[in-house]
Amino acid sequence: MRKVRLTAIMAMVLISLSSMSCKDTKKENNKDNHLHSEINQGKMDISNSAMNSNTQNSVEQKVLTNYIALKDALANDDNANAKELGIILAQSLKSFDSSGFSSNEKLELNDIIENATEQAEHIGYSDIAHQREHFKILSKDIIDMVAITGTKMKVYEHYCPMYDNKNGGAWLSMNEEIRNPYFGNKMLKCGEVKREIN
Amino acid sequence: MKLVKIISWITLISFAVIQFFPVDYNQSKTIPQTDFMIVNKVPATVYKTLQVSCYDCHSNNTFYPWYNKLQPVAWYLEKHINDGKKDLNFSFWGDYSDRRKKSKINSIINQIESGEMPIYSYTVIHRNAIISKSDKEAVIKYMTSLKDSL
């Protein structure tokens, strides 16, 4: 009998405690979110103004070079290496500065960079199937970026019609020879050269 | 027998103590103009599916049944919500650029199609969040048309 009473008391204490702790933090929530967005804004401002146009060209090259290295890692089915390169690419994308471009181009470039950075970050911690999903979106971003910025290096746009349930996927490469980043060893040669860009 | 008794007391007491640790509840009073459901004309079935199966972790409004307010469930949920909102927040849909919307829709379609979302650890408790085959098709069809319209 004593045991039963003890358990009942314990249960009541528990219930009252948990209902008390429910009320605490609603208010803080909004304030917190606001603070976070302010911090993010601050970060963006720094990266936008830190670069000048002389260094910009090399940033574009760096983005492209890191992207191509990532492409090679995926073609080699190298999940771990692709993770590292995704992180590196995200960093170089973050240092991109669109201030030297016309206002239309700037808008588009900012969208591209923001989207591409997110894809690269995901590649930094995903399994290889996910990496490839994000790489498809990333490739479109980088192709669109190059269309605006141009490139000193000669690059090729390749296309594999089989990837993504035959929706297809494109990528950029320094070499004409196809080495498919979407299928890797499974179908390394699948794909075609769409065009040369330089 | 005595040991069992001690252990169960310790468990019970620590369970009681952790109830004092606060959690940031993911709830806002107003639905912003940037919400997916306001920005887009969403058909009723798709609306319901997204609300029940996605919005808990991918919006600023989580529905909290009583067990979600108990620790350590609330902690566990909090982490999921933060991660979920970072990747996709339907409440701020209107703030995404068209390019970003398209990427998000691609990921939404892929994840729902492959059954990765809603994640198992969520549906194992929230049984009603499991998306039926026909609802799945409806969401994917709607998302595809939305993507093409961007």
Q: Which spans of chain A of ≥5 residues are poorly predicted at pLDDT below 50?
A: 12-54
Task: Report the biggest beta sheet of chain A as strand number plus sense, adding barrel if it closes.
Answer: 3 strands, antiparallel
- Poorly predicted tracts of residues of chain B: none
Helix content of chain A: 55-70%
Secondary-structure element pattern of chain B, one letter each: HHHHHHHHH
Oligomer: heterodimer
What count of helical segments of chain B does DSSP give? Answer: 9
Q: State the secondary-structure class of chain B.
A: mainly alpha
Q: Tell me the count of domains of chain B.
A: 1
Helices of chain A, by number, come to: 7
Task: Give a quick rundown of the structure.
The complex is a heterodimer of chains A (198) and B (150). Chain A has helices at residues 2-21, 26-50, 53-75, 79-94, 103-123, 128-149, 163-166, and strands at 155-160, 169-173, 192-197.
